[in-house]
Write a structure and sequence with these properties.
heterodimer, A: alpha/beta, Rossmann fold, six-stranded mixed beta sheet, four-stranded antiparallel beta sheet, 10 strands, 35% helix, B: alpha+beta, 13-stranded mixed beta sheet, seven-stranded mixed beta sheet, 50% helix
Chain lengths: 222, 808
């Protein structure tokens, strides 16, 4: 089992009122799954992804990741955990504007203190695999949206995560680019990467092996 | 990793050119200031340390307490003190004495009677032991026995070259002085005067046993009077100087009890001063042998450099935290892909370090280019060699590193604590850093700027005041010609009448001291019937007939000198006051002086108004003038605009009459102004630094407002759509900054007042600090800030709101 959520909630206070962003979520994710989170805006898809990715915290309930109890961990240990096992892909790509394609992809390896020669090899591999070797010295602003998202995914994958979290990965792309990205996800999943994506699109959701519908912070159907 | 940091740092710097420009400019100015002041300060330290066992060499200094009158502190002693110390105390291994002959002679020196001579100052009569304590590097001859016999001299390489060219000079002779007082001296050595950094700075040495003043010093045995000898002793290694110091009171009493009582100096004390402290720690000791500096002045300069660098650092801090928004995304993403807080802090520190190191590299050539200007301002002789010195470079590198860390650490901590989720959740405005802290830093910058403006105004006012104050004599339109040879003395009347025939010459007079020289001679005098030991020190100047009308000094009572006068004197009003002589009794009063048991009488024949015969830093003290026929200066008052013609007429007349002394002249008003050269320099230095501080602060403000306006773009757009006018928008953007400048003004006012009040205490005659100086400084700072801020504010206010709203 990759992760288990047990009665997990996230409740915040806003203007004196308690708002329940996530309400008693129970979810088990096995390795190798490709899950699509669906639901209207504000239903809690992004919050659930962020909480699973440990960028935000559940305020209640249990979260176990690779048999480690995340809910009782210190911030520092969480950072270590997600650094090691989780990769993120964002709707707005979130590449670092001042770095080239190659350097953007290399960045996670720098923070893992991997040797220069090894870094070069890993980056070269992934550039090759994603067919963006020719773009390696360009800056993000010189790329199309689809190409930027490819770089974003390459960066997420470079440190070989067990889990890839993608929040509306095709939201800013045209349909052709969107299909390419989804096909890539499906391919990655076949190679063994567990993926959880949040999406509005039925067709995108269909690439997954499992669809979870959220409404007002609750899982309404699976 | 580091390479990655520097790479992204460099790209960031290049991307934000305005910001980088502002930061770099400030840091370069700061670093150049630091570098220049650093080499100046280093140049001023390390004096006298190259002498063997310099830490064991001391100068004896004298403090003469005179009851309730101010004590007389001098770097000199009576002649027999140093030899007596050596024979009394076993820990004194060596002693030597130096007499600065410039006080008595004009020091005319020439290679032979057939050639023109030069007035060469800094001639030291010295005991033969001088080179055992002070090792000068001999280029020719040997220090051993160089000054053992009478009429021997050791020249500096510079002087030897001036007199003889590049020839070998040992064994040759020079003629020192002129007429009846001329002496022939044999050269026994030449020393290198370029490489020594010493308070002594000799031009040439003459053996103490040479007839005249030296002979007098060698044989004089009074322990109380004639305190004009510089006395040095060297202690054996491990000797306890403090212990010796404690034995000095009984030492002076043992040798000179009776003499001290006779001279009215019962409170005379001797002090040991380390020679290595002389150059920087001689405040309060008069009669230094050369120009000394003051550690306070160096501290002041260092503080200025520090503040400029600090103001530049503040710009960096403010601008970096202000634009945290723009970097928030990068920080968030880095954290998501695995960056820890530590690695982000390191990244931002490397950015500020990179900037400060670039500033350092650029500042070195700039400093070298500025050195001639600096030398002009400080009367220094710094060269690029002073910069390319490992000590300076190491210090510079550490200053730059510290600057980078100081400027970078706060923004680094602020930026690295941005939470990634804030950024990734999109367009939330990030409140980075405490707005209060940034405001406090801006206030601090303006406190410095306003204080400096106030200081500059006051220092300049005081300087102007010293220039324009009625000194009691007229310094304008007067040249002073160097005299001082017996030839001039005997031909004075002829020269005078010849000069008066030159068109434009109004009057001619002569004197021992010129108005721009400190009157050093003095007599201890008393009134008939009073205790001869209760002396009043009266300064003494010898002048010719017509001195007072040439100088335009008011003769209040009595008459000018006439040819038959001998001991008759003319005194200033301060003398009457000091002796409590009523004005109507002045002309019937006689002052007395006892010397070697003989009483001399000085009848007062005239009273002059108090005039400033020393600088305005000192009070006008008692002074008497007597008729003197051996002038050091001839003063020519003129009324013409054609200076060139006048000087050439004077020169040809001089040469017709005098063949022993060269024609050299100065303009009296210029020389009087030079007395305040230090204040003038201070005023210039302060002006420069004030300008720099304001410039850097305003650039910072400019950058800050740019970001502020950028951040408020949407707010401004909405307000304008809702009908806000340009004025209200400008007001919205400038209001906060105006408040900051006002707060800074409130803080700076008392600080600047205290500092300037303290500084003005140095002057007996000084300006009052008026309120309008502060008002002017405040309004000035406010205006400068407003202009800076409104430039950006107006730009933001007149922009089309649609543009800003659409991009959101």
């Amino acid at each position: 089992m990759l992760l288990r959520l047990n009665q997990a909630s996230r409740i915040i206070k806003s203007g004196g009122k308690k708002i329940s962003l996530l309400d008693t979520i129970n979810l088990n994710v096995k390795e190798g799954e490709f899950i699509s989170l669906m639901g209207p805006s504000g239903s809690g898809k992004s919050t659930l992804l962020n909480c699973i990715g440990m960028l935000e915290n559940f305020t209640d309930g249990g979260y176990v990741f690779l048999e480690e109890p995340v809910h009782s961990m210190k911030e520092r240990d969480k950072t270590k955990l997600y650094k090691e096992y989780i990769g993120f892909v964002f709707q707005a790509y979130h590449l670092i504007d001042e770095l080239t394609v190659q350097e953007n992809i290399e960045t996670p390896l720098l923070y893992k203190n991997i040797k220069s020669s090894e870094r070069k090899a890993l980056v070269a591999d992934i550039l090759d695999r994603f067919n963006i070797v020719g773009k390696k010295d360009l800056f993000p602003s010189q790329l199309s949206g689809g190409q930027q998202q490819l770089v974003g995914i390459a960066r997420a994958l470079i440190s070989k995560p067990k889990l890839l979290l993608a929040d509306e990965p095709t939201g800013n792309l045209n349909s052709k680019q969107g299909i390419e990205i989804m096909e890539l996800f499906a391919e990655l999943n076949i190679e063994g990467v567990t993926i959880i994506q949040a999406t509005h699109s039925e067709s995108n959701a269909a690439y997954g092996t499992r669809i979870i519908n959220l409404l007002d912070g609750k899982i309404v159907s699976e | 990793m580091i390479r990655n940091y520097f790479k992204i740092a460099l790209r960031n710097l290049l991307k934000h050119k305005l910001l980088t420009g502002i930061n770099l400019f400030g840091l370069i100015i700061g670093t150049v200031s630091c570098l220049i002041i650093l080499i100046y300060v280093l140049n001023q330290t390390g004096y006298d340390q190259h002498f063997d066992h310099a830490e064991n060499i001391y100068r004896i200094e004298t403090v003469n307490g005179r009851g309730d009158k101010p004590s007389f502190n001098t770097a000199t002693t009576s002649p027999p003190i140093a030899p007596a110390l050596k024979s009394d105390f076993p820990e004194v291994s060596e002693m030597t004495r130096i007499v600065l002959t410039d006080l008595f002679n004009v020091n005319l020196i020439r290679a032979s009677l057939e050639v023109d001579g030069y007035y060469e100052p800094r001639a030291y009569l010295a005991d033969s032991t001088v080179f055992k304590i002070f090792q000068f590097h001999f280029i020719e001859g040997s220090p051993i026995g160089a000054l053992n016999s009478p009429n021997q001299t050791v020249l500096s390489a510079t002087l030897a070259k001036k007199l003889f060219g590049n020839k070998s000079v040992v064994g040759k002779t020079v003629i020192w002085g002129s007429g009846a007082e001329a002496q022939t001296l044999t050269i026994t050595g030449v020393f290198d005067d370029e490489s020594t950094k010493s308070h002594l700075n000799p031009n040439y040495f003459v053996s103490m046993t040479t007839p005249g003043m030296g002979e007098f010093v060698s044989t004089f045995q009074n322990f109380a009077t004639n305190n004009f000898v510089y006395s040095y002793i060297k202690l054996i290694p491990d000797a306890d100087a403090q212990n010796l110091q404690e034995k000095l009171p009984s030492f002076i009493q043992k040798h000179g009890k009776k003499q001290l009582e006779n001279a009215g100096m019962v409170d005379k004390k001797l002090f040991l001063k380390k020679i290595t402290d002389i150059h920087l720690y001689s405040e309060g000791r008069d009669n230094q042998i050369g120009t000394v500096s003051n550690i306070k002045y160096l501290y002041f300069l260092l503080a200025l450099a520090f503040f400029i660098q600090l103001v530049a650092c503040i710009n960096f801090i403010n601008l970096s935290t202000a634009r945290a928004n723009q970097r928030a995304k990068e920080i968030g993403v880095r954290k998501v892909v695995g960056a820890g807080k530590g690695s982000l802090i390191r990244q931002f520190l490397s950015e500020s370090l990179l900037l400060s190191l670039i500033a350092m590299l650029i500042s070195i050539p700039i400093a070298i280019l500025l050195l001639p200007l600096v030398n002009e301002l400080t009367l220094g002789s710094l060269s690029y060699l002073n910069i390319f010195n490992w000590k300076v470079l190491v210090l510079l590198l550490s200053i730059s590193t510290l600057t980078g860390l100081l400027a970078g650490i706060y923004p680094a901590i602020i930026l690295s604590s941005i939470k990634p989720i804030q950024v990734l959740k999109s367009a939330v405005q990030i409140q980075s850093g405490n707005g209060m802290f940034r405001k406090a830093l801006v206030v601090f910058q303006f406190v410095i700027s306003i204080s400096l403006i106030v200081s500059v105004i006051i220092i300049t006012q005081q300087f102007k005041y010293t220039q324009s104050k009625d000194l009691g004599f007229n310094k304008e339109n007067m040249v002073a010609l160097r005299a001082g040879t017996s030839d001039v003395t005997s031909k004075y009347d002829a020269i005078k009448s010849n000069f008066l025939n030159i068109p434009g010459v109004v009057s001619v007079a002569s004197g021992r001291y010129a108005p721009f020289e400190t009157v050093l001679n003095d007599n201890g005098m008393y009134l008939p019937g009073k205790n001869p030991q209760d002396l009043t020190i009266v300064r003494r100047n010898g002048v010719s007939k017509d001195y007072f009308n040439t100088m335009n000094i008011d003769l209040l009572q009595g008459r000018d000198f006439n040819a038959t006068d001998d001991n008759q004197i003319i005194v200033n009003k301060a003398t009457l006051k000091s002796f409590n002589i009523p004005e109507d009794k002045a002309l019937s009063t006689i002052l007395l002086q006892t010397h070697d048991e003989v009483v001399y009488e000085y009848p007062i024949v005239g009273v002059v108004d108090d005039y400033h015969f020393t600088t305005l830093k000192d009070e006008i003290v008692p002074l008497f003038l007597h008729l003197d026929n051996e002038p050091n200066w001839v003063f020519v008052k003129f009324k013409t605009d054609d200076y060139k013609q006048l000087v050439s007429n004077l020169e040809s007349t001089w040469k017709k009459n005098i063949d022993t002394a060269p024609f050299t002249y100065v303009f009296v008003d210029k020389e009087v102004e030079n007395l305040y050269a230090q204040e003038q320099r201070l005023s210039k230095i302060c002006t420069v630094f004030t300008f720099l501080a304001i410039l850097i602060s305003c650039l910072g403000l400019f950058g800050l407002v740019s970001y502020y306006a950028e951040q408020k773009k949407k707010e401004i757009g909405i307000r304008k759509v809702l009908g806000a006018s340009v004025q209200t928008v400008v007001k919205l953007l400038t209001k906060d900054f105006v408040v900051l400048v006002i707060i800074a003004f409130v803080i700076a006012t008392p600080l600047a007042y205290l500092a300037m009040h303290n500084w003005l205490e140095n002057f007996t005659y000084r300006i009052d600090i008026s309120v309008w100086v502060f008002i002017l400084a405040g309004i000035g700072a406010l205006l400068i800030a407003l202009i800076t801020v409104s430039f950006q504010a107006i730009k933001a206010a007149i922009a089309n709101p649609i543009n800003s709203l659409r991009t959101e």
